[in-house]
């Protein structure tokens, strides 16, 4: 199938990339030659994500740590796909700085 989409060397961040939906998204971006960064609790051996950061994104300090890790490595994220399923009664904790 011919496509006009070009993700060559684009940096895509997928949170929850090891889950069912996330792994499908990771696989699709890898087929488009993107650099896929996965943040999740466990590594999915079915795909060949080049970059994996093991983290629990239900904790704000881990979100900050992951962000700072990518920033320190000077990785510019072109797209973020959020596939985590997390519920908090205190969403202001996560969105207060937005």
How would you concisely characterize the structure shown here?
This protein has helices at 20-31, 60-72, 92-95, and strands at 11-15, 35-40, 51-54, 79-82. It is an alpha/beta fold.
Give a written overview of the molecule.
The chain has 98 residues and is of the alpha/beta class. 30% of the residues lie in helices and 19% in strands. It contains three helices and four strands; from the N terminus they run E-H-E-E-H-E-H. It has a four-stranded parallel beta sheet with strand order 3-2-1-4, with helices on one face. The protein starts with 10 loop residues before the first strand and ends with a helix. The model has no long low-confidence stretch (mean pLDDT 84).
Q: What's the topology here?
A:
Elements: E1 11-15, H1 20-31, E2 35-40, E3 51-54, H2 60-72, E4 79-82, H3 92-95
Parallel strand pairs: 1-2, 1-4, 2-3
Structural class: alpha/beta
Query: What is the H/E string?
Result: EHEEHEH
Q: What are the low-pLDDT stretches, counting only 5+ consecutive residues below 50?
A: none
For the termini, the CA-CA separation is 39 Å
The total beta strand count reads: 4
Our estimate of the beta-strand percent is 15-25%
Instruction: Give the C-alpha Rg.
Output: 14 Å
Report the average pLDDT across residues. Answer: 84
Residues in helices, as a percent range: 25-40%
**Lateral strand order in the biggest sheet:** 3-2-1-4
- The number of helical runs is 3
Strand count, sense and barrel status of the largest sheet are:
4 strands, parallel
Shape: globular
């Amino acid at each position: 199938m011919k496509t006009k989409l070009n993700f060559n060397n684009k940096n895509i961040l997928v949170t929850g990339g090891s889950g069912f939906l996330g792994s499908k998204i990771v696989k699709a971006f890898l087929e488009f030659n993107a650099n896929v960064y996965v943040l999740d609790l466990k590594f999915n051996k079915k795909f060949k994500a080049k970059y994996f950061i093991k983290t629990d994104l239900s904790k704000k300090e881990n979100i900050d740590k992951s962000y700072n890790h990518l920033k320190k490595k000077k990785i510019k994220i072109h797209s973020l796909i959020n596939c985590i399923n997390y519920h908090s009664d205190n969403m202001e904790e996560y969105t207060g700085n937005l």
